[in-house]
Each structure stands twice: as structure tokens, then as C-alpha cells.
Design goal:
mainly alpha; 1 helix; 0% strand; coiled coil
Length: 83
């Protein structure tokens, strides 16, 4: 069977559209992968910041406790001096 020119051009156009659609899917898939990678990097940064914050909080609490201990010791020594 002989295909007419319009039929061949229609088939070519359909093939081209399918090809573009496939490449568009690939572009979207690549973009999604890129976004997922960025999300993972940001999550790692946030986790690092959380750890640093917790470490700072622990250090602050430790220093605060040391300060309270020193204040109690000073108060005790002042009381002994009065006696």
C-alpha cells in the first residue's frame, strides 16, 4: 500500500510530538532529581545546624551550672568569714 504524502507527514509529526513528549518527561525527571538533591543538601545543613544548636545549648547549660556552683561556693565562703 502506498502512503500519501499527507499520511507520511502526519506520521512524522506524530513521531516528533512523541519524541518531544519523551524528552519533556526526561527534562521534568531530571529537574525533579535536581530538586530532590537540593532538598537533601538543605536537610543536611539543617541537621548540622540543629546539632550545633543543641551543642551550644548543652555548653550554655554547663557554664550556667558552673556559675551557680561558683556563686554557692562564694556565698558559703563569705558565711565562713563572718563566723
Amino acid at each position: 500500500m502506498v502512503r500519501h504524502r499527507s499520511q507520511r507527514s502526519k506520521e512524522k509529526r506524530i513521531a516528533r510530538i512523541k519524541s518531544k513528549r519523551g524528552s519533556a518527561r526526561q527534562v521534568v525527571a531530571d529537574y525533579i532529581k535536581e530538586l530532590e538533591k537540593k532538598v537533601q543538601e538543605l536537610q543536611e545543613q539543617v541537621n548540622g545546624m540543629d546539632r550545633a544548636y543543641r551543642d551550644d545549648q548543652r555548653e550554655l547549660l554547663r557554664v550556667h551550672n558552673e556559675l551557680k556552683k561558683a556563686e554557692r561556693k562564694i556565698t558559703r565562703l563569705e558565711g565562713e568569714e563572718r563566723d
